[in-house]
Design goal:
Helices cover about 45% and strands about 10% of the residues. It has seven helices and four strands. The C terminus is likely disordered. The protein is an alpha/beta fold.
């Protein structure tokens, strides 16, 4: 009896997904068309030019580090070689304006960006990927937290099919979990790429754990729990 109920629930869930999924994705597509026209109008670009969109997911784009330099370099090259492309950056840096970010990039990296083909989608809440939200299992928590954040950003603006649109979640921050979300929502229609800056878990990190050495990224809050280190080192990555 219990098996039959479980099977029925599974079937009902499958039917619900089949019904809801097309409606949800179609709603996002309609919203995306409206957002696309608004962005083009805001940038002062002619709608007849049919610009292409390239998306970059980086919640901390204004941090001024090496991973950010890669993104701005890519955008600057795109602006020079593909003037008909609009670079759309998804960021959680809501305390700064587009102009301030561009000025910061120029001052920090000596990279000049054209505001006419650069758009920012500001995420109101990036807490799911902040280290403070995950005092334990931080890297795993941030990876999992990037999943609902991706749903949020795709809901704000889906790169539609009017021309080649690419969504690039830079894996320099360990956000590989964003790939399957975008692929699922866009039905696999959007090509994706990533710049892999470093592994999510590197040998340097493992060496610090083995030596029980804390740094600014990870303080060992429980130094007396000797079981923590062997479990960490033997868990498959």
């Amino acid at each position: 009896m219990a098996f039959a109920i479980a099977l029925l629930c599974l079937l009902l869930t499958g039917v619900a997904v089949i019904i809801v999924y097309p409606a949800y994705t179609n709603k996002l597509a309609r919203r995306s068309v409206q957002a696309r026209h608004a962005i083009i109008e805001n940038l002062g670009i002619s709608t007849t030019s049919n610009p292409q969109f390239i998306g970059y997911f980086h919640p901390y784009c204004n941090a001024g580090g090496g991973g950010e330099r890669v993104i701005w370099t890519a955008i600057a090259v795109t602006q020079r070689t593909h003037p008909n492309c609009i670079s759309s950056v998804y960021t959680g840096d809501v305390n700064v304006t587009k102009e301030q970010i561009i000025d910061q990039v120029e001052a920090r990296f000596d990279i000049f960006l054209d505001p006419k083909s650069l758009h920012f989608v500001f995420l109101k809440n990036r807490r799911p990927v902040e280290d403070a939200a995950w005092p334990r299992f931080t890297l795993l928590g941030q990876s999992l937290g990037s999943t609902p954040l991706t749903y949020t950003l795709v809901g704000l603006f889906v790169l539609d099919a009017a021309g080649l649109s690419v969504f690039i979640p830079p894996d320099s921050m360990g956000y590989a979990f964003t790939f399957h979300v975008v692929a699922w929502i866009t039905k696999g229609s959007k090509p994706m790429g990533a710049y892999v800056h470093y592994p999510t878990i590197s040998t340097d990190m493992l060496a610090r754990v083995k030596a029980r050495k804390a740094d600014i990224e990870a303080a060992l809050a429980l130094p007396n729990e000797n079981l923590t280190v062997p479990i960490t080192l033997t868990t498959p990555l």
